[in-house]
Amino acid sequence: MVGACRAFVSVSEVGSFTGGSAAAGIPQPVASRRIAALERHLGERLFDRSARRVLLTPFGRDLLPRARQLVRSADALEQDAKRARLRPVRLAVPATCTTRALAELDAAARTHELFLEFRRADPAERVDLVRTLDVRAALVAVPADEAEWSVPLGVAGTTERHHGPVHLDSLRAGRAERSPRRRVWIQPEDDVPHVRDRLLRVRDAVGLRPAQVAVAESLSAGAAEALGSADLLLCSAEQAVEFGFLWHPVAELPLARGYGITAEAGYDADLLRTALRADVACCLGAVDGTGLENG
């Protein structure tokens, strides 16, 4: 019905079957067949074909406004469907994700007709954003042994020049030492119990002062402390490269960020877990569940 009405409207506006079919983007025989089928369906002729120029019959003139309305409605439906397909899925992501990494994830998602809109946030806020329906899904912080993606963590700074792990007990100052005690700065992305509390237990076990392991106000603030002193930043190896730091694992225990996906009720996030799994891992600078490092 829509195709026939489109041919009918085009031919009536142009005044010929040849020109009308070209305007509708279909071959002339197809336009003729569609209009003839529409006439049979409606029970009356739409055009007077006896004249040199194609003219509407009175019946055709009466039906033309409604046919135009149907064609406009069909066009509007197609546009609505296109907009619906292109409607971005709002995804909360760690503030540590770079603009380049997010752009690459978005580009990969578009090959699956998924358009992403990102909201950077700290761990607790990402959970809240899903609960308040401000986003449809979020990459949330979980313990590494429960994670779909994990990011190994270590400490980095400008002063550690040796190879191998850093022993946190080496930060313990002697009684005669007058220089400021070195600190380890935890960035907000790692201010979660399964990372922070484990590091604090090691701090206490090796005899560091409470202030020697502290949470920075922001990633840039923690990095600035490490840049301007002998302090260390808890971070991924990828972040260490970004800041020009030398990165080392922590000798006393393995540390890692863990990530999973949580989504609003009714939204299926399986595409992020399956077809886009490696792309999400690259965005996070992570090791996915297969144990293979990405990035």
TrEMBL record:
Residues 1-57 form the HTH lysR-type domain. It holds the Pfam family HTH_1. InterPro entries: LysR_HTH_N, WH-like_DNA-bd_sf, WH_DNA-bd_sf. It comes from the Bacteria. Keywords: DNA-binding, Transcription, Transcription regulation. Belongs to the LysR transcriptional regulatory family. PANTHER family: LYSR SUBSTRATE-BINDING (PTHR30346:SF29), TRANSCRIPTIONAL DUAL REGULATOR HCAR-RELATED (PTHR30346). This is LysR family transcriptional regulator. It comes from Saccharopolyspora gregorii.
